[in-house]
Design brief:
This protein has about 160 residues and is of the alpha+beta class. It has a single domain, classed as Protein Transport Mog1p, Chain A, CATH 3.40.1000. The chain has three helices and eleven strands, in the order H-E-E-E-E-E-E-H-E-E-E-E-H-E. Strands 1, 4, 5, 6, 7, 8, 9 and 10 form an eight-stranded mixed β-sheet that branches. Strands 2-3-11 form a three-stranded antiparallel β-sheet. A hairpin with a 2-residue loop joins strand 8 and strand 9. The relative contact order is 0.18.
Length: about 160
């Protein structure tokens, strides 16, 4: 094998080895559905009660942890913050999307956090001067749990929720 090809193959092997797939769905009957409300961004959605929300940046970022995975994330962010986090910003939309009754874009991209990379499907809409995104760690089509989360996503369109 030519010497110059060895580093390329090693880099490809490392990249493939560090890409994690879609996490499994929680087993049906092992959880109840509960409503999560985010006052900072002004939305609610149904999630399995085994998904523990971990809020960051005053609630503008929420990671839903289950077992050792983070299958769902929500961000209410600026373009600068999204770019800094390595989110969808700068990617080309994969198509149109609707989130909470608002029209926006669907993104499918690879997010790398250190040496670990994950495929993400993001639904992004403009909301109160920022971008609001609901993200799923998914290889493409959403599983039944993620589809229900997406379908339940509701924006709080009250005067109190309209304040940044």
């Amino acid at each position: 094998m030519p010497r110059r090809l060895v580093p390329v193959l090693a880099a490809v092997a490392l990249a493939v080895a560090c890409t994690v797939g879609e996490p499994p769905e929680p087993e049906a009957g092992s959880y109840e559905w509960t409503t999560y409300t985010n006052e900072a961004a002004g939305f609610t959605m149904e999630v399995p009660d085994v998904y523990g929300p971990y809020e960051q940046a005053g609630g503008r970022a929420v990671l839903f942890r289950w077992a050792r995975d983070v299958p769902v994330k929500a961000y209410w962010t600026t373009a600068t913050e999204a770019e800094h986090r390595g989110l969808w910003f700068g990617e080309s939309p994969a198509g149109a999307a609707t989130l909470g009754g608002l029209d926006g874009d669907r993104y499918e991209y690879t997010h790398c956090d250190g040496p670990v990379c994950s495929r993400m499907v993001s639904f992004v809409v403009p909301w109160r001067g920022r971008q609001l995104a609901l993200e799923f760690r998914s290889d493409g089509e959403l599983n039944a749990t993620n589809r229900r989360i997406l379908d339940s996503f509701t924006l709080q369109r009250t005067e109190a929720a309209a304040r940044p």
